[in-house]
Each structure stands twice: as structure tokens, then as C-alpha cells.
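Late entry, written up from scratch paper. The run itself happened at the end of the previous shift, but nothing got recorded in the book at the time, so transcribing now.
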Amino acid sequence: MSLGRACRTAIADLSSAASVGFVIPDLVSNADALPNGGIHILLNCAGIQRRHASHEFPDNDWSEVLQTNLSTVFMLCRDIGYYWIAKGIRGRIINVASLLSFQGGLNVPAYAAAKHGVVGVTKALSNEWAGRGIGVNAIAPG
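Output as recorded:
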């Protein structure tokens, strides 16, 4: 706080859309009391991976990976974007993709699909929100 900055975190089951739905409302509930009047950065960096041969990949593993790695990213971006647009905040989103977003990998079709989707969501939101002062970018470690 001596630099006029603060970090807020939230705990949620990111494989559950219902749990994710509470994250941004919880974080922004007292945001006006934060330095600089609110939350200005969102970092989406959680992810899971399940390995199976593609022809044997279980539906439940596919769903859990896509929910955690892609749907959750979109929901959090959407919800913070709504808050920022309503408040006129020029926020920044950093989404963590993966080199597998571009390479595909072996025995990780759900992970590759989800991380490829993160790149697509990042581009779409960046295009839509740039004119509102909201920057949306992704990094792809690997």
C-alpha cells in the first residue's frame, strides 16, 4: 500500500461456472475503497490438463478442462469488462495461453483446444474493447 497499490484475490472452484460467477462481484464489492478507485488489472492464469489418447478422451475430462481453461477465462473477462465499462475504468487483462495454443501437443486435445480458444477470446475482446480503453492481451509460456 505504500506505493498506492493493492492486490485482491478470490478463491473459487474454477471448474464450476456457478462458483466463477461470484468471483468478480466479490472482488469489486469494496473496490471503490482501493487505491485509484477500483480494480484495474485482471490476470487469468489458472489451468488444468488431462492426458488421454484423443480416441479415448473421456467426456467429463473434456468438459472440466474446457470449463476451467476457457469458459472461466471468458466469464471473468466478461464480468470485469462489464464493471470497467460501467465505471469508465481503463483496465488491463492478461490471459495466459500456452505454446500448445499454436502447436497442438500430444494426448492433450482438450487443453490445446481450450488454450487455442483463450487466444481467440483474447483477440475478440481486444478488438471490441480497445476503443473503450481496455487492453486485452495474452502470453503463451511454454
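The two ends are 33 Å apart (CA to CA).
(Scratch paper discarded after transcription.)
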